[in-house]
């Protein structure tokens, strides 16, 4: 029997069959198109002159509700955040019956529909620099997988709620909805990792894990501009090792390669501050980058040839820090890498499109790699050294070619930071902060951590005497800061992720307890971190329920600032 539901606006405009899936048509998503949404069944307009509606108001299809209207309606909804999933069709081969039911319940919520629409139309375009938006892999891959993998769906909803909450100053979404979904995503991720590790999985299960990890990392970046935690990347690497993906991946594994390539770059960014954290081995990086298409550069900015060289630099730095290679070998490798960076010709590089500004992006990353390698080689070298300032100026000159209106500006957070750490002039520092403001305004993502560290480095340099030429390294300023305090919750989540893998029987207890505490003390923002900290230690220490309640009460009484909350952790 033919369905009486209206097709989505996109399918209607293209005169093609629609699967009428809610909240967005799966045919549109699988083709990378923006689903135009569904009209209300009827809108009475005018008087009919014939037919069954003769002499009555005629029902006609109404234009689908706009994302803005959906956001406003959902933000006015005071109902609790959905604990489950929607009526989107899923493949029985890719999820268990319980997962299918959960996905349907989650997707049935109006709030979920709004958050998915927000992810699709607001967040996705800023995750990759594309001229043809219909080819956005974050829409084609992530959304289609999210309708099959419950952990990824929760991660997408968490990221979207966090971003929407920041964007609209809505604490309910940022502090309640986003945290609930993130906790669920992390719990589901542990289940998914165990499933893949057991060998009972398919390609969607495996790629769902990699996609979930990337979305969780983007959630961190949305809040602060950097992910301070490495448990997720380490988990991805353990799966790669177990499945021997460095040997088995082929060009046909396009989706897997896309996710892993991005995780390999995030692994490198994380290792700039602490090379010992590097997870991905050079062999796997080489395999991934040999299979990646040019979307890798569209997402990450840095040309793959430079990624391989800087990855090798970080790998040898890690080996040197653990005593596996001598100082002489370490220095020779880094000096040779600097020469490779200087000899690399950006004009011979392949770029995602014909936009000439890609050359400026490539040059900015080239000198970012040069400057970072010099600092790994000798972090005490004076910033006044000519070749240090040459790289600083080259980075800033390259970035100056890119207007604020270009999507490529969003790729340059790292080059701006590396240049800023060795920047000496006041006007150049002011320029860097102006460009960060432009990036934040365009991407609508938080970039507080890099700015916070730069401010501290510059303040330390200002306290030096006029004749003091000693360097002020940026790495020691990675410690506790306001950004760390704001992300204390994420620290707990990372620890919870590891803990729930080690003792899965107890992980559900802490998840339920933390949700209960957040609902009980909703609106009391100053107690948020303390409650989670106490609950975390309650589970680890096996404290009885009465003592837990007493500790929660005492913590709330004593908690005068976020600092005391952090001390609990």
Question: What does this protein structure show overall?
Answer:
The chain is mostly helical. Among the domains are: 9-64, no CATH class; 324-471; 488-568, no CATH class. Helix content is 63%, strand content 2%. The chain has 27 helices and two strands. Strands 1-2 form a two-stranded antiparallel ribbon. The longest helix has 28 residues, at 171-198. The chain is globular and about 75 Å long. The protein starts with 8 loop residues before the first helix and ends with a helix. The model is unreliable at 41-94, 480-496, 516-544 and 550-569 (pLDDT under 50).
Helical fraction equals: 55-70%
What is the number of E strands?
2
Residue share in β-strands = under 5%
Q: Strands of the biggest beta sheet: in what spatial order?
A: 1-2
Largest sheet: 2 strands, antiparallel
- Unreliable stretches covering 5 or more consecutive residues: 41-94, 480-496, 516-544, 550-569
Oligomeric organization of the protein chains: single chain
Q: Give the overall pLDDT as a whole number.
A: 77
Ends: how far apart?
A: 59 Å
What is the rounded Rg? 25 Å
* Large-scale geometry: globular
Helix/strand class: mainly alpha
Topology pattern, helix = H, strand = E? HHEEHHHHHHHHHHHHHHHHHHHHHHHHH
Please count the helical segments: 27
């Amino acid at each position: 029997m033919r369905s009486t539901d209206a097709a989505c606006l996109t399918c209607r405009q293209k005169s093609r069959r629609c699967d009428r899936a809610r909240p967005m048509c799966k045919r549109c998503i699988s083709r990378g198109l923006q689903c135009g949404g569904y009209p209300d069944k009827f809108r009475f307009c005018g008087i009919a002159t014939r037919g069954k509606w003769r002499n009555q108001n005629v029902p006609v299809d109404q234009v689908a509700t706009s994302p803005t209207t959906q956001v406003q309606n959902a933000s006015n909804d005071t109902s609790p955040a959905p604990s489950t999933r929607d009526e989107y069709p899923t493949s029985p081969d890719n999820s268990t019956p319980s997962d299918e039911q959960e996905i349907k319940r989650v997707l049935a919520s109006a709030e979920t529909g709004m958050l998915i629409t927000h992810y699709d139309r607001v967040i996705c375009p800023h995750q990759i620099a594309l001229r043809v938006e219909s080819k956005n892999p974050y829409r084609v891959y992530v959304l289609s997988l999210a309708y099959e993998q419950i952990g990824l769906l929760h991660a997408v909803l968490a990221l979207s709620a966090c971003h929407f909450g920041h964007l609209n100053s809505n604490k309910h979404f940022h502090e309640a909805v986003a945290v609930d979904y993130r906790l669920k995503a992390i719990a589901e991720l542990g289940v998914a990792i165990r499933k893949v590790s057991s060998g009972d999985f398919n390609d969607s299960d495996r790629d769902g894990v990699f996609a979930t990890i990337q979305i969780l990392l983007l959630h961190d970046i949305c809040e602060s501009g950097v992910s301070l935690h490495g448990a997720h990347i380490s988990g991805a690497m353990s799966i790669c090792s177990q499945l021997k993906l460095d040997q088995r991946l082929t060009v046909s594994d396009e989706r897997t390669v896309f996710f892993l390539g991005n995780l390999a770059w995030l692994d490198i960014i994380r290792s700039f501050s602490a090379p010992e954290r590097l997870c991905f081995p050079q062999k796997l990086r080489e395999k991934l980058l040999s299979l990646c298409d040019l979307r890798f550069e569209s997402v990450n900015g840095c040309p793959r040839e430079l990624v391989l060289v800087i990855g090798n630099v970080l790998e040898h730095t890690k080996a040197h820090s653990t005593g596996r290679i001598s100082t002489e070998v370490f220095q020779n490798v880094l000096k040779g890498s600097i020469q490779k960076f200087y000899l690399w010709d950006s004009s011979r590089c392949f770029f995602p499109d014909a936009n000439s500004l890609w050359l400026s992006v490539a040059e900015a990353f080239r000198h970012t790699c040069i400057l970072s390698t010099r600092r790994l080689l000798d972090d005490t070298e004076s910033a006044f050294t000519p070749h240090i300032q040459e790289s600083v100026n080259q980075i800033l000159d390259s970035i100056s070619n890119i207007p604020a209106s270009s999507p490529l500006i969003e790729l340059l957070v790292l080059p701006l930071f590396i240049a800023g750490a060795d920047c000496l002039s006041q006007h150049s520092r002011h320029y860097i902060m102006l460009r960060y403001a432009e990036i934040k305004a365009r991407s609508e993502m938080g970039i507080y951590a890099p700015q916070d560290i730069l401010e501290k480095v510059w303040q330390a340099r200002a306290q030096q005497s006029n004749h003091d030429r000693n360097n002020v390294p940026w790495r020691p300023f990675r410690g506790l800061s306001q950004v760390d305090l704001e992300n204390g919750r994420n620290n707990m989540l990372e620890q919870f992720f590891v803990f729930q893998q080690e003792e899965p029987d107890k992980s559900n207890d802490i998840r339920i307890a933390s949700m209960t505490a957040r609902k009980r003390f909703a609106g009391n923002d100053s107690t948020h971190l303390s409650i989670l900290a106490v609950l975390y230690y309650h589970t680890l220490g096996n404290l009885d329920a009465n003592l837990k309640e007493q500790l929660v009460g005492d913590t709330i009484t004593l908690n005068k600032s976020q600092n005391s909350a952090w001390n609990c952790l």
